[in-house]
Amino acid sequence: MSETINCPSCKRLVPKGSQFCPYCGFNILGYLSQQTSYQYRRGAVPTPASPHPRGILSGIIENFRMIFTPRPPLYNITSVVYDRLPPAPYAESKKLVAIGVGLTLFFYLISGITDILRFTLPFLIAYVIAGLYLYWIYRSDKFEPEPLRFVFFAFAWGIFSGLPAGILNSFIGMPIFKQLTGIPALSGPFVEEPLKILGVYWLAKHTRYGREFNGPMDGFVYGFAAGMGFEAMENFSYFLSTVSEGGVAAGWGLLFLRSIAFGFGHGVFTGLAGWWLGVAKARKGFISGEDLSVGLAPSITLHAAWNIFASIFPILNFILAFGLLLITKKVVSEAIRDEIYWGYAMGYAPTEKY
Questions:
Q1: What confidence tens digit (pLDDT) does each residue in 39-90 have?
Q2: Number of neighbouring beta carbons within 10 Å of residue 172
Q3: From CA 136, how far away is CA 149, in angstroms rounded?
Q4: CA-based max dimension of the chain
Q5: Within 10 A of 65 (CB to CB), how many other CB atoms are there?
Q6: 111 — phi, psi (to 5°)?
Q7: CB burial string 8-17: b at 16+ within 10 A, e below
C-alpha cells in the first residue's frame, strides 16, 4: 500500500494522512471529505495517523514511547499550528517583559540581592552559560522563532519558581523523602518540575498569548527556557552554599561543573514537559490539565534518575547527561520535521513582524 498521495492542488507527493500539503498548504482532508467518489465511499480518506491518547495512563505510555523511540511525523493536526499572535498596542506587547523583570527582581529581593553584589562574576557566569544553552535551542527553531519577550518570560518564571520550590523542598519534600527513601534529593523532581512548567502552561492556555504556542517545537523552547532560568538560579545558589561551607575555590569548581558539564539538565527536563503540551496543542487544538500531568511524567522520571545517580554514584550523571543530549537532538529534529510537513519551510509558518 502506498504511503504517499498526490496533493489535489499542486500534485506533489505528500505523506498519506497529511491534513495539509507541506508544499502549497492545501487542505487535503477538507477536500477529500467533500468528495463522493467510489474510493471515498470505500474509505480511502486516511484516518488520523496520530490520534491523541485519552486518559493519563495511556498518555504517559505514549509520551515515553514518542521520546525514546522514533516517531512518525504529526501528519494530522488542527489549524492552531497556523495561528498567529494578534497585533497589540506597544504597552501590552511588552507586558510579559515587565512581568518577567518583576518576577526576577522579586526572587532576588527575597533571597538576597547582596549576594549578587558580593559575587557578581559568578552570578554573571551562571546566567551567561545558561543563556548560551538557551540560545542553542532557540536558534534550532528556525522556521518560526518564538518572540523573545515570551522566551524571556518563561526564563524569568524558571528563576521565580525557585522561591516556592526552596520552601516546599526544605520543609515538606526533603524530610518526607529522607524518611521514605533515604535520598532527600528525590524531593526535587516532584516539587520543582510542576512549578517550572506551570508558567509555560499558563502561557500556553492564555487566550491571547496561547496563540503563539503552536506545536512541539514551541513547547520545547518555552519549557527549556523555564528550565534554564531555574538552572542558572540554582547553580548560583549552590555556588553560594559551597563557598560558605568549603571556600571560594570549591565554589568555583562546583559552579563550572554544574554550569558547563551539567548545565542543561533542567532545561531538558522541563523542555520535555513543554514539548508534550505542544504535541497536545497541535493534535487537539487545546491543552488540558490531563496533558500537563502526562507531560510531567518523563520530566520527573529523568530528574529523579539524575538525583539518584548524584546521591549514589555521581559518575553515572555523565552518561545520563550524554543521554539527555541525544534526547534533545531527537525531539528537536522530529519537531522541525513536523513543521516541514506543515508547510513552514514553504512560507506557511505563522511568524509575526511585531
A1: 333 343 333 445 778 899 999 999 999 999 999 899 888 889 998 887 766 4
A2: 12
A3: 17
A4: 79
A5: 11
A6: -80, -20
A7: eeeeeebeeb
State residue 43 phi and psi, 5-degree precision.
95, 25
4 φ, ψ (degrees, to nearest 5): -130, 155
Per-residue pLDDT tens for 95-118? 999 999 999 999 999 988 889 999
Cell numbers describing residue 32: 477529500
SS3 for 196? Answer: helix
**Cβ partners under 8 Å of residue 48, min gap 6:** 17, 76
The amino acid at 340: I
Cα–chain-centroid distance for residue 264? 12
Asked if 153 contacts 102 with a C-beta cutoff of 8 angstroms, the reply is no
Dist. CA 100–CA 169, nearest whole Å: 24
CA distances from 105 to 114, 240, 280 (A): 12, 18, 33
Q: What is the pTM of this model?
A: 0.86
